[in-house]
Predict the 3D structure of the following.
Amino acid sequence: MWAEEIGEGEAAEAQYRTKEWYNKGVGFWEKVEASVDGVLGGYGHVNGRDVKDSNEFLVDILGERLTQNRHLVALDCGAGVGRVTKNLLLKHFQEVDLVEPVSHFIESARENLKVCGQSKSVANHAVNFYCIPLQEFTPEEGRYDVIWIQWCIGHLTDADFVAFFNRAKVGLKPEGFFVLKENVARNGFVLDKEDHSVTRSDTYFRDLFKQAGLYLYKIKAQKGFPQELFPVKMYALTTEPPAIMQDVSHERRSKRRTKKS
Ligand SMILES: C[S@@+](CC[C@H](N)C(=O)[O-])C[C@H]1O[C@@H](n2cnc3c(N)ncnc32)[C@H](O)[C@@H]1O
């Protein structure tokens, strides 16, 4: 599939077609309204349920760290209009940075997050807004407790997926986590030629994690989404082998149809 989409053989040709793949992906989002409904493809109503399950997952993996008065910092990748930062990350992290390649989204995020002091006595706030795609981004060394990547990694080629996680490892504090929250295909992958993204299967993701030298700490399935959507999984990943891998993805949904296939 990648050979067909971005070419193989001649390096210059492959480079050109990879650039074209990314331009088309960003080009798709540039035409989308800067709103929660826009970044959720018309499914703005799932925001509440999405945030609820993400919050439970985050609280589970961070555990005591959330109650120890630590200064916690997160990075929101492919942040869109700042939906995840506003509704989830700023509830727990004193500082949040955002990376997003579409300028009208990141400007909207900047506006949306202006007065976003949340639950704690010291106002948590969004600090840095990086307008850049993930395949070109390298985080500041040792800044983040959590790097949250939701509904955007499908835009990256396999090679850039692995390269991004390898670069981004330096951005984590010791014992920090990546959290990847993504649509998951039943088998193989599903290519979306409209927004230029690929939905990977669980096996596909696990193979890429392995290639990136990441360890699965915890995995959980999102519940309560409309049946016509892809199943969604949350993966907590570490750069060192975890003592125990926690698998709480036992529940099955009876019927799963996909939005895109
Ligand atoms: C479905 S939206 C999700 C936005 C946000 N993560 C959320 O859950 O509200 C996909 C986002 O990925 C961004 N995106 C597209 N290509 C990207 C790339 N190469 N690197 C990082 N983000 C990208 C889009 O601009 C868009 O904001």
About this structure: The chain is about 35% helix and 25% strand. Helices lie at 2-6, 11-30, 36-39, 47-62, 83-92, 103-112, 158-168, 202-211. Residues 22, 25-26, 29, 39, 78-80, 83-84, 100-102, 105, 133-135, 150-152, 155 surround S-adenosylmethionine (CB under 6 Å).
